Amino acid sequence: MNWGAIDKYAKSLIKEAGHRIRVSFYTNISVDTKASANDLVTNIDREIEQFFIERITKDFPEHRIVGEEGFGDTIDSLDGVVWFLDPIDGTMNFVHQKRNFAISLGIYVDGVGMFGYIYDVMRDDFYHATRGEGAYFNDERLPRLENTPLSEAVIGINAIWVTPNRYVEHEPLIELVRSCRGTRSYGSAAIELAYVSSGRMDAYMSMRLSPWDVAGGMVIASEVGAVSSTMTGEPLSLLGQETFIVAKPGLQQHILKHHIRLK
Ligand code: 2AM
Ligand code: CA
Ligand code: CA
Ligand code: CA
């Protein structure tokens, strides 16, 4: 397999998809809801996923593609080459803000993340990494992350997890919010992973993410020394919805030990 060629191919596919998304703002976008009234999807999410899947299945018929909108494959193992695609991560931002959303793509081989891509479409900012070869923000090599104490850490967390919820005890999280330097919530897991990888935030956490939300970002994060895990400190299975934290190594351990009590 010519991995360098696959990397170039993936990058150009993502750039083309980004162009299609920007052009879509001149068309009528139809918004539907999925599991709940706040869970949005548009015709553009579906069209962009189909665009990727048509191209990839034609050019790499033996690869499997797992996408959020369900046009790809359903997998129960990570054997072989698997592309994890979120055509628009941050659909609510896409609909309400027309910015702050990203294309997220990760290419895994027998469960090992080889390539990760996050494309912030409206800013034209491209975060990308190849396993073992470092991570990049556009053409700029991202430096390895230094550890940061909680008192100086900026943490990505959705306020919903600090209210009573069925996944995690919220009181230790209130304490986390009080103890850190500040919190942020960008509404796109991929962009938040990109921000942790590029040192703009020190940690990001969520109680419920899917493989396509994090697969690309985890490859990038790993290349700068950030640790990704579930809230119990295990590696992600990438086979279903899971809890998720990505952070600088000491900070990840501190947060899991002192601020996470799963229900
Ligand atoms: P999405 O926009 O692709 O659906 C929002 O905080 C982040 O969580 C986004 O990355 C969003 O991805 C993701 N997310 C995962 N599952 C979700 C759900 N059921 N409803 C809304 N956002 C979800
Ligand atoms: Ca969605
Ligand atoms: Ca997503
Ligand atoms: Ca999505």
Automatic annotation (TrEMBL):
GO biological process terms on file: inositol metabolic process; phosphatidylinositol phosphate biosynthetic process; signal transduction
Cofactor(s), by name: Mg(2+)
Record-listed E.C. numbers: 3.1.3.25
Keywords: Hydrolase, Magnesium, Metal-binding
Catalytic function, reaction form: a myo-inositol phosphate + H2O = myo-inositol + phosphate
Molecular function terms from GO: inositol monophosphate 1-phosphatase activity; metal ion binding
InterPro entries in UniProt: Inositol_monoP_metal-BS, Inositol_monophosphatase-like, Inositol_monophosphatase_CS
Binding site for Mg(2+): E68, D86, I88, D89, D213
Domain of life: Bacteria
Cited CDD domains: IMPase_like (cd01637)
Protein's recorded name: inositol-phosphate phosphatase
Organism: Savagea serpentis
